Amino acid sequence: MLLVTYNVSPSNLPNISLPSGGFNFSEFNFSWLDLLADFIVTASNVSFLPGGDLEMRSCLERAAPPEDYVSTLSYLDIAGSTWLYINFTYLPTPEINESTYEVWMYDGSWHESGWNGSRVLDTARNVVGVNITSLTSNFKTYAVLAKKKIESIALTLHRGWNLVSIPVDKEFTPEQLFQGFSASYTIYAWNPEVKEYYEPETLKPGEGYWVYVTSDVSITVKGGALYQYPLNLRKGWNLIGSASHLAVVVESTARCHPILWTWMPEEYRYSRALAIMPASGYWIYAASPGSVIVVSS
At CA 242, angle to CA 237 and CA 244, rounded to 5? Predict the structure, then answer.
């Protein structure tokens, strides 16, 4: 289903002159308004100037972005006869490197759209745009992508048992995590549904893990910044993870106890906690199943 069909002719071509200093996307704010699926085209989030026939529709099959990139909600399928100036309004988020916002094209694989001289990034107005000169009659997907901020966080393990987590947006196998270290280790995760421990094949952000090491180890964990994430909790005790910075549990529908419990390996005892420290793991009790959000404070 088409979202917008724009057929250019002398009678409906916008009467807009280009500034002598080059193209300025702030000059073009059209009042298109149409709604399809979950995408709204308005002057507040999409502005465009076509050089020929143009068709746009919402993108219902959104491809995963390239590694180390994240996508926004700005996905459009576009087809046309010549060229198109288009810009998107984005919402800045703390985990994204704002200087890396770009419009990308997907045709089975991702490609940066345009070239340096044809790309626009206005961080004062939160606008990213491009001059697309390779439109065809076949629809291709265009989206706004950006790189996540990269965090390097120390995961300090003391000899014996440690309650830890992955504080970045990246998964690790135990072998990857302990690569280059001679200490022997054992790792357990908690299954709250059957209330049993198991040995995980992969360590994932958002989850807590018991790790036993035969000697002190300090590991640098590197990956995309993790500022917030949702968690589904089972009734009873759940073992949760951390974020890249100091965090708290908010927006609970699981009737959670406000006190968390973490492990002090040097003192070999549990300790109460109200906030979540990066790289630590925590027990949280839910009186009923539901969801929570862990968010950096």
Answer: 175
Torsion angles phi and psi, residue 95, rounded to 5: -85, -5
Residue range 47-92, pLDDT digits in tens: 777 777 788 777 778 888 988 888 876 788 888 888 888 888 888 8
Give the whole-angstrom CA distance, residue 171 versus residue 222: 10
Q: What ranges do the domains of the chain cover?
A: 4-147, 150-296
Neighbours of 29 (CB within 10 A): 13
SS3 116: helix
Q: What is the pLDDT of residues 259-282, one digit of tens each?
A: 999 999 999 999 999 899 999 999
Whole-prediction pTM value?
0.70
Which CATH architecture group holds 4-147?
A: Sandwich (2.60)
Rounded Cα gap, residues 214 and 158, in angstroms = 8
pLDDT tens profile 166-214? 999 999 999 999 999 988 999 999 999 999 999 999 999 999 999 999 9
Burial category of 159 from C-beta neighbours within 10 Å (exposed 0-12, middle 13-18, buried 19 and up): middle
